[in-house]
Amino acid sequence: MTKVIKNGTIVTADLTYEADVLVDGGKIVEIGKDLTGDEVLDATGCYVMPGGIDPHVHLEMPFMGTYSTDDFDTGTRAALAGGTTMVVDFCLPQPGQGLLDAIQMWDNKSTRAHCDFSFHMAITWWSEQVFKEMETVVKDRGINTFKHFMAYKGALMVNDDELYASFQRCAELGAIPMVHAENGDVVAELQQKFMAEGNDGPEAHAYSRPPEVEGEATNRAIMIADMAGVPLYVVHTSCEESHEAIRRARMNGKRVWGEPLVQHLTLDESEYANPDWDHAARRVMSPPFRNKKHQDSLWNGLQGGSLSVVATDHCAFTTEQKRYGVGDFTKIPNGTGGVEDRLPMLWTYGVGTGRLTPQEFVAVTSTNIAKILNVYPKKGAILVGADADIVVLDPEKEKTISAETQASAIDYNVFEGKHVKGLPRYVLTRGMVAVTDGEITSEPGHGEFVKRDPAGPVNKALSSWKELTAPRKVERTGIPASGV
Ligand SMILES: NC(=O)NCCC(=O)O
Ligand SMILES: [Zn+2]
Ligand SMILES: [Zn+2]
User: Which residues hold their Cβ within 5 A of ligand 2, which is an ion?
Assistant: First the structure.
């Protein structure tokens, strides 16, 4: 049965035009005027855009002695509710655990996904086994991104020698390393210092993770990636110090992408000064929220092109879980929700204010990351042959964000009370209508794993350049006799 989206304005990362979209068998099969289909979805007054891709979520993440509460069922349903049609989670081997063993666990927990998904693989320790299994992860499992935590000392953190070894392996395999860039050694010292001073509340989480720890680690990761000859993706870029390192690297010809989160763009550090412990703790995430100066830097980076993707790092813990850290902020599970609100918040505070054009909005919520992940134009496009992952966004539809009406399974929302304008009228996941004017009709198990080939265009270009400019032995004639 075909579906036709009629009378809308198509907005892609580079074009805006009026046309209908015909969908059949989960794909876009025709784009043009006056199309007909078995089922008509009226898009009058709406923008027809590629569904959002959130490349940074943690569903049922084992972390800090618990599991994040939104799992692949509730988390991907929440994603669709907000117009996001693909998410990428992080497969996290425990230190000592094999990568393939960990993928098996992630396969098992992702069977109830409502929308398409993929995994990044985390490198949480280093060994001959990890080195070997990385090849299978890339070639057999279709995972072309490897995440490295430079923070969370004693848990997920890896050191510079491990970073360099893993980055080199990524270069060989045509994969892209990603970093959580915070100096974990300094954070650990600062955590101890604040606790020793009796500064044990959620605000001390922010004090222990100043922008400098992020700027230093971002710059270090960029330089290590450059020496390994591989592109780099920096997750949750939250501050000018980190953005500055990325901006400078890009201007100097390095292949680096920065990913701000919608939370860092729209919420600031004053949240941690709230006298209500729960309010502040619910907003504890790493890196923490920053001040207006940093927010402006991130918005400018999106506008100017030095930052590429807006994600959420959706990692939702309940208030009860957050309370594990009463009396010791270092035990508050790090993470916030956001997957459901990313598109409406970014449309409202980005397009609604003139900080972003609608086309820039599509670029940073969908198309850019589809290209980075090497899944464009299957994903991130309104083109014939692309998956029919589509959001029909009504720019006049409004709501006030509230935990009471959200799809996410947690008991609060960090955007509570924010008024957003620009909401999905329809959301389609591979051709299936999953949302109609706020009513969710998606199905657990509909989501499929998206395989991603290695050696995307940027990897290839960088390898060519590194090969061309590699240090070479100077061939000499007439070498003088040794002086000894
Ligand atoms: N960001 C955060 O606080 N929690 C999720 C894990 C991570 O991405 O660091
Ligand atoms: Zn992180
Ligand atoms: Zn994360």
Answer: 180
Q: What is the pTM of this model?
A: 0.98
Q: How is residue 343 written in tokens?
A: 């598109």
Q: Is 91 in the pocket of ligand 1 (CB under 6 A)?
A: no
Q: Render pLDDT for 79-135 as a digit per residue (tens, 0 to 9).
A: 999 999 999 999 999 989 999 999 999 999 999 999 999 999 999 999 999 999 999
Class of domain 51-382: alpha beta
Q: Give the Cα separation of 455 and 346 in Å (integer).
A: 31
3-class secondary-structure state, position 330: helix
Q: Is 447 exposed, middle or buried (0-12, 13-18, 19+ CB in 10 A)?
A: buried
285 lines ligand 1 (CB under 6 A): yes
**Terminus-to-terminus CA distance in the chain, angstroms?**
85
Distance (Å) from CA 426 to ligand 1 centroid: 30
Angle between helices 128-139 and 99-109 (to 10 degrees): 50
ipTM of the complex: 0.99
**CA-proximal residue: ligand 1, atom 7 (nearest):** 286
Rounded to an integer, what distance in angstroms lies between the CA atom of residue 357 and that of residue 361?
A: 6
Q: Which residues pair with 180 in a beta bridge?
A: 149
Query: Is beta strand 145-149 parallel, antiparallel or unpaired with respect to 116-122?
Result: parallel
**Centre of ligand 2 from the C-alpha of residue 258, in Å:** 13
pLDDT per position as a tens digit, 146-178: 999 999 999 999 999 999 999 999 999 999 999
Distance 286 CA to ligand 1 centre (A): 5
Longest dimension (CA), the chain: 89
Structural tokens at position 400: 């006030």
180 alpha carbon – ligand 2 mean position (Å): 5
Q: How far apart are CA 301 and CA 20, in angstroms?
A: 33
CA distance linking residue 202 with residue 213, whole number of Å: 18
